[in-house]
Design a protein that fits this description.
Blueprint: E1 8-16, H1 19-27, E2 36-39, E3 46-49, H2 51-55, H3 68-74, E4 77-80, H4 83-100, E5 104-108, E6 111-119, H5 121-139, E7 143-148, H6 151-162, E8 169-171, H7 191-199, H8 205-210, H9 213-231, E9 248-258, H10 261-281, E10 284-295, H11 297-302, E11 312-323, H12 326-340, E12 347-355, E13 358-359, H13 379-401, H14 440-448
Parallel strand pairs: 2-4, 7-8
Antiparallel strand pairs: 1-6, 1-7, 2-3, 5-6, 9-12, 10-11, 10-12, 10-13
Helix pairs in contact: 4-5, 10-12
The structure holds magnesium ion.
Length: 491
């Protein structure tokens, strides 16, 4: 129902549909209409599903071996998580959104809130339709867009748009919320609050709005009261402010059990680099670090440890002074590792946690740090600033040309710890060696969405099966894919 055009403020939620699966399908058009699942870091669980896989009833977090029969029966395509590709596609999508709506907030990897103030709602609707087409044409991703006076209503509008087969853009005006929208699907209402509401017979938006403010506050506190205001069309959630993390952790399981110290140290160095990047991104320094090692189940069971299944070894060390310099933190992390590492044991995981985090401006130098050296600079301060410039330059290079392109030498001592990721697709947009190769076959495929893409990592074209092999659905004779998963040289 069209309302009289009036200039108001609007919240717009742009949400990519099945983002990880869509990124894979954008570069492999032959997968567009097939059930597709994306796996976790070590190829264990399904963390993202295409619409067709959802329709088969496969839940998030399902172990891939639980659905082995289903994979064969329906020709489900399973790929390892290609997070470098997803991060880059997200960055491109956010860039396009910013061109249309400069006032925006990146809410997650595949969602953004945009704000339009004092503009005609009909024009905003038309602009969103253009934005949607632009994103689809530029990066091959479908997005659903919700327009509403508040964030919560925009979320509901985007959810309705997602199920709309035609426009995929939906607008909700103040006071026009669907009263039958289920309460458990409202953004911002958690599981415990939902239970309390259902226990009182409140099952939908209409029921929630019929409660008084006092009742709402009694059931779910200030958060639920804010949600109620938002549902009434009164903005109660300000733009999300960037919050500094109090601790930063990075830990991953190895692709296979590891015994060698060099392999554990290499993994720890890479994870420390990632933690330091996050530390610098929020302009903070750390005062303490903890290194954790986890033994394999078999090793822990056979050991004399009182813990029957897992044995976690950890050590916490204070840093001599708060810092965010990668080189310095890696040196202390490795010293900590040497304290807990036991030879001839099998390890399955290593991780680091940085704590005592404070703003960079809070660094206090000592009286001796400010003593001037021969070159006229304060020795310690000059070294700190120089190291910070080097780290920042490396962060920029890695962000632009591929994650972990420049790493400390300790990270390159061993590759036996690399995650499995046996079915990872090429990182098309960030690695020159893995850039998609255009020829007649895939021009046809990308333009008409009919034939499979031809790509190759080693500059060779070899006719083999694609990543999934299904005897019941033999591939077309012209289907040419890389015979091997992409190089695992980089973690
Ligand atoms: Mg999404």
């Amino acid at each position: 129902m069209k309302q009289k055009a009036c200039k108001k403020s609007f919240h717009i939620l742009i949400d990519a549909d099945n983002f990880f699966a869509s990124c894979e399908q954008a570069f492999s058009p032959q997968w567009r209409h097939k059930p597709l699942g994306v796996l976790t870091h070590n190829d264990g669980l399904i963390i993202a599903r295409s619409a067709r896989l959802k329709a088969l009833g496969v839940k998030m977090g399902t172990p891939v071996w639980h659905i082995a029969d289903l994979i064969k029966k329906h020709g489900i395509i399973i790929v390892s998580g290609n997070h470098e590709l997803y991060d880059d596609m997200s960055m491109r999508m956010m860039g396009i959104i910013r061109q249309y709506f400069p006032h925006m907030e990146e809410y997650s990897i595949d969602e953004a809130f945009a704000y339009a103030v004092d503009r005609d709602p009909e024009k905003i609707y038309a602009q969103c339709m253009t934005l949607q087409r632009d994103i689809r044409r530029s990066i091959g991703i479908n997005v659903s867009i919700g327009i509403a006076p508040t964030k919560t209503l925009a979320k509901i509008a985007a959810d309705i748009a997602k199920h709309d087969k035609v426009d995929k853009v939906h607008r909700i005006d103040a006071g026009a919320t669907d009263p039958n929208y289920p309460v458990e699907q409202i953004w911002g209402i958690g599981r415990q609050t939902t239970k309390k509401l259902l226990a009182r017979g409140i099952t939908d938006v209409g029921g929630l709005l019929s409660l008084s403010n006092n009742d709402v506050r009694r059931i779910g506190g200030a958060n639920l009261l804010r949600t109620r205001y938002e549902l009434l069309g009164v903005p109660a959630l300000p733009p999300r402010t960037y919050q500094t993390q109090k601790t930063i952790s990075h830990a991953r399981s190895f692709g296979k059990p590891v015994t060698a110290l060099s392999a554990v140290a290499a993994a720890l160095s890479v994870y420390t680099v990632q933690a330091c990047i996050r530390l610098r991104a929020q302009q903070t320094v750390a005062g303490k670090l903890q290194v954790r090692l986890t033994l394999t189940e078999r090793q822990a069971t056979n050991s004399t440890s009182p813990h029957p299944l897992y044995q976690h070894l950890s050590v916490t060390v204070p840093l001599p002074r708060p810092t965010n310099a990668t080189q310095e933190i890696i040196a202390h992390a490795l010293q900590a590792l040497y304290k807990i590492y036991q030879p001839h044991r099998q390890y399955k995981k290593v991780g680091i946690t940085l704590s005592d985090i404070a703003p960079t401006s809070a660094i206090q130098y000592t009286l001796f740090d400010t003593q001037k050296a021969g070159d006229g600079y304060s020795t310690r301060i000059y070294q700190t600033q120089k190291q910070h410039r080097i780290d920042t330059a490396i962060d920029h290079i890695n962000a632009k040309y591929g994650k972990n392109l420049i790493l400390p030498a300790t990270a390159l001592c061993s590759d036996s710890w690399y995650p499995k990721q046996a079915k990872r697709t090429p990182r098309y947009t960030t690695r020159w060696r893995e850039v998609i190769r255009m020829d007649d076959t895939n021009v046809c495929s990308l333009l008409y969405n009919r034939h499979p893409v031809r790509y190759n990592l080693d500059r060779k074209l070899v006719p083999v099966l694609p990543l999934e092999h299904d005897a019941n659905h033999p591939p077309a004779t012209n289907r040419l894919c890389s015979p091997h998963p992409p190089s695992q040289k980089s973690p």
